[in-house]
Write a structure and sequence with these properties.
Blueprint (H helix, E strand, L loop, with lengths): L14 E6 L2 E2 L7 E9 L5 E7 L21 E8 L2 E16 L8 E8 L8 E6 L8 H10 L4 E2 L13 E6 H12 L2 E5 L2 E5 L11 E2 L8 E8 L6 E3 L26 E2 L11 E3 L8 H17 L2 E8 H4 L8 E5 L2 H4 L1 E13 L2 E10 L1 E2 L8 H7 L3
Parallel strand pairs: 9-12, 13-19, 15-17
Antiparallel strand pairs: 1-2, 1-5, 3-4, 3-20, 4-7, 5-6, 6-7, 8-10, 11-12, 14-18, 16-22, 18-21, 19-20, 20-21
């Protein structure tokens, strides 16, 4: 007999709630073995649902013959904390796979899902955005593309490039938007029917505090932090000459990111030579584009100086940790505690409960919790 962790109507904190085409899959909960959702800043959110399936005396199977789990059905996966729900992912069922090993009692149905971005990956388009008489902009392009899918641009999004003329799209909408995000050095994150298009939100309102070794307030099961000292302090490049054959070598580009601690974790105070990496030339790029590419490169290196990998007890944390937003971490001492940036989160619902495995990034040392609303953040760790 399967251990049913999903069907109790009086939900205990941190249970999984799944709706398909607007209806909760209550009758399938007893067969759900595991639900995992992978969320990150760089990739589309993806979920895997694993069901045990049984055949009745008439030859029908409980899961695959239920007529519920079908490709392109709309799916929403949430975490329930008592009577409160927080969305983990929404999107579409991408693939349904039946596995029938020799032992019929081990038959499984695996359902693969992807966030709303998969719908933007159905049609290849060839079009040109912006004319000399009517220039376009990244924000206008995004709003026009997203509106066709019933999606909205997140209110925190940035404008991107303006007065665009002759920007060619020769790809699906989502691949084109990813290219525009990369061109601007932005993130492209689909969440709750909105799309964030903008730089890293290092100074956004922090999420609930991750508490380490905090007695009854502890919500972090494990956390390891490593420091990568081999990240450059600046990125250099050679710009094409304005005239003649001489190569212009501008000043190396340094990080434009705000410090996420009290002291930057670079090597500028090590008493050594300047740590500069040189960027490979990009064919056809002008000086302005090369400078922008160097800025993106050094910012990406800068945020990866301090990296943390850990796991939360979702019930004790009491929230859905979101990638692409800051989170305070307390209990690591004066040097390692402070505000980090969430790079990715893997959500897992099993018979053992709700777990959230995460990766955090930071570019500085020092406990800055008080400066970042730390007193509120520390209390937020108590649910």
């Amino acid at each position: 007999m399967l251990f049913d962790i999903f069907s109790n109507k009086d939900r205990d904190p941190a249970e999984c709630v799944i709706t398909v085409d607007g209806a909760e899959i209550t009758e399938l909960y007893p067969f759900l073995r595991e639900a995992t959702v992978e969320c990150g800043r760089a990739e589309a959110a993806a979920a895997t649902l694993v069901f045990e399936t049984r055949r009745n005396e008439l030859g029908a199977w409980t899961v695959q013959d239920a007529g519920v789990l079908e490709p392109w059905a709309r799916i929403v996966i949430s975490a329930a904390f008592g009577n409160r729900e927080e969305e983990v992912m929404r999107g579409y069922i991408r693939e349904v796979r039946l596995e029938t090993p020799q032992d019929a009692g081990s038959a499984l149905v695996r359902v693969e899902c992807q966030d709303d971005s998969i719908r933007l990956d159905r049609t290849h388009r060839r079009t040109t955005w912006g004319t000399a008489d009517l220039p376009s902009s990244d924000s206008l392009i995004l709003n026009e593309i997203l509106a066709a899918y019933g999606l909205m641009l997140d209110g925190d999004s940035a404008q991107g490039q303006e007065r665009l003329v002759g920007v060619v799209q020769d790809d699906t909408d989502v691949k084109f938007l990813k290219a525009r995000a990369a061109f601007n050095g932005y993130e492209l994150i689909f969440r709750e029917g909105r799309v964030y298009f903008g730089p890293m939100r290092l100074e956004a309102d922090p999420q609930n505090t991750i508490m380490v070794y905090a007695g009854e307030e502890t919500n972090c099961l494990s956390l390891s932090v490593r420091v990568d000292g081999h990240q450059p302090d600046a990125v250099a490049y050679d710009a094409p000459p304005v005239s003649g054959d001489a190569v212009d070598s501008p000043e190396p580009v340094r990080s434009s990111l705000p410090s996420m601690g009290t002291t930057r974790a670079d090597s500028s105070n090590a008493g050594l030579e300047d740590f500069v990496w040189k960027m490979s030339a990009e064919a056809g790029a002008d000086a302005q584009r090369l400078q922008a590419l160097a800025q993106m490169k050094i910012n990406d290196c800068d945020i990866r100086r301090v990296q943390g990998d850990g796991e939360l007890d979702g019930g004790l944390y009491g929230r859905v940790l979101q990638a692409g937003l800051p989170v305070p971490v307390d209990g690591l001492g004066e040097r390692m505690s402070g505000v980090y940036y969430v790079d990715s989160v893997s959500h897992s619902f099993t018979a053992l409960g709700y777990r959230q495995r995460f990766r955090l990034l930071r570019n500085a040392w020092g406990d800055n919790l008080d400066a970042a609303g730390g007193s509120l953040g520390r209390l937020a760790g108590v649910f």
